[in-house]
Amino acid sequence: MTWYQQNRRDLPWRGESSPYRVWVSEVLLQQTQVATVVPYYQRFMERFPTVADVSAAPLADVLKMWEGLGYYARARYLHQAAMEIVTQYGGQLPNTYAELRRLPGFGEYTAGAVASIAFGEAVAAIDGNVKRVLSRLFAIQTSVTRQLKQIARELVEQASCLLSLDRQDACPTSPGDWNQALIELGALVCLPKTPRCATCPLNELCQAHQQGLEHVLPLKPVKKKLPHYDVSAAVICQAGQYLIAQRPLKGMLGGLWEFPGGKQESGETLSECLQREIREELGLTIEVEQPIISIKHSYTHFKITLHAFYCHLTEPQTPQTLQVADWQWVTLADMANFAFPRTDLKIIAALQQRD
User: Fold this and answer.
1) Which pTM was predicted?
2) Rounded to an integer, what distance in angstroms lies between the CA atom of residue 185 and that of residue 8?
3) Distance CA 127, CA 109 (A)
4) Fold of 228-354
5) How far apart are CA 163 and CA 120, in angstroms?
6) What is the Cα–Cα distance from 176 to 158, expressed in whole angstroms?
7) Which residues pair with 326 in a beta bridge?
8) How far is residue 39 from each of residues 26, 45, 179, 341, measured CA to CA in Å?
9) Beta carbons within 8 Å of 101's beta carbon, 6+ residues apart
10) Which of these, 34, 232, 272, 300, is most buried using a 10 Å CB contact count?
11) Residues 16, 26, 99, 289: which is the catalytic one?
């Protein structure tokens, strides 16, 4: 705790007393580096200063603020939870781990972080940093999640009792500070590949360090080779406007807008793939013209190469919402008002260069 007070980073959400702000910061930080999160957090708070503001906003506005950050399910769950908090809890976040877990998007970590930091409940908040610190500290040579959870729970409970008794100590006494101290130690010192054991306040207690296992632990599962898919996208333009489609709200990238298209099937050319996808999604018949750009992108469980092509309708046709949530004809300038996945933002940038 002394180390944490002296070495913790000065972050815009640190020391916040607002449960709402603690919650938003924790959601943003999931699977995302701190340096990336800081400007998003600041913009999000300017646009949505209270949970009521998120609840009242259309999902499209929340997704737009999230644009480029990835893992968009976080934004959808945050919006759903905000509406429940307003309608069921009078606009105030419930103040216990058990109640928080009932809200959309509140997994074990998020509920533990908010309950401990915002409300002082002695519950663990176990992220990748904490798992790494505890695995090394206790030289856990298996990937037993249950064991790590038990250790983390015992530590936060014991630390809270000890710290509350030691009133003369200048260290913070809240379970939230304890959890953040462990997270910060993993982020700044107990690094994945190059742990800085010489400057670690726990190096004399760390069993992995004593046994020379700090570069071995925690044990990592064997990574499977990610499958790769070729995906095509149709840039259909008429009268200075482009056809964009909204993905179904449920599922990957739900609610975002995109240039319509889809995954290439076995035996198809990219042109054939695009013609089939546009027919299935929007009920349109198109001709595929010259390519615009190819974009490589990695998701959590697979990789893609997205191939964008100029296309035109074979005859006057009205799009249908067959496998899309919505569609619109928009100008290139209008696209700034819609939330797109990162790949489609690169297509837009390529179109802007050619415009």
Assistant:
1) 0.86
2) 9
3) 6
4) Nucleoside Triphosphate Pyrophosphohydrolase (3.90.79)
5) 13
6) 13
7) 246
8) 14, 10, 24, 18
9) 107, 108, 111
10) 232
11) 26
Residue tagged 């919505």 (tokens): 326
Helix 175-188 and helix 145-165, axial crossing angle in degrees, nearest 10: 120
Rounded Cα gap, residues 307 and 290, in angstroms: 11
What is the mean pLDDT, run by run of 10 residues, along the chain of 355 residues?
Answer: 93 88 96 94 97 97 94 95 98 97 97 96 95 95 82 89 54 80 97 95 96 91 89 96 95 94 96 97 97 95 97 95 97 96 96 88
333: tokens are 């300038």
**190 C-beta neighbours (distance < 10 Å), count:** 27
Nearest residue to 343 via CA among 30, 70, 113: 70
Best CA proximity match to 4, nearest among 153, 127, 169: 169
User: Is 26 a catalytic site residue?
Assistant: yes
Q: How far is it, in rounded angstroms, from Cα 74 to Cα 37?
A: 13
* DSSP assignment letter at 336: G
CB atoms within 10 A of CB 188: 17
Cα 174 from Cα 116, distance rounded (Å): 8
Give the pLDDT of residue 143.
Answer: 67
Q: Which helix (DSSP H) or strand (DSSP E) does residue 232 occupy? A: strand 228-238
Contact 318, 284 (CB under 8 A): no
In this structure, are residues 258 and 247 in contact, taking their beta carbons and an 8 Å threshold? Answer: yes
Tokens of 102: 């009932």
**Cis before 218 (ω within 30):** yes
Interatomic CA distance for residues 117 and 33, integer angstroms? 20
**What sign has the CA pseudo-torsion 142, 147, 149, 155?**
negative
Q: Quick one: CATH architecture of 2-210?
A: Orthogonal Bundle (1.10)
CB neighbours of residue 146 within 10 Å: 7
Structure tokens at 238: 């008429």
Residue 230's alpha-carbon distances to 175, 258, 304, in angstroms, are: 48, 16, 6
Say which amino acid occupies 350: A
Map out the domains of the chain as residue ranges.
2-210, 228-354
Give Dmax (Cα) for the chain. Answer: 80
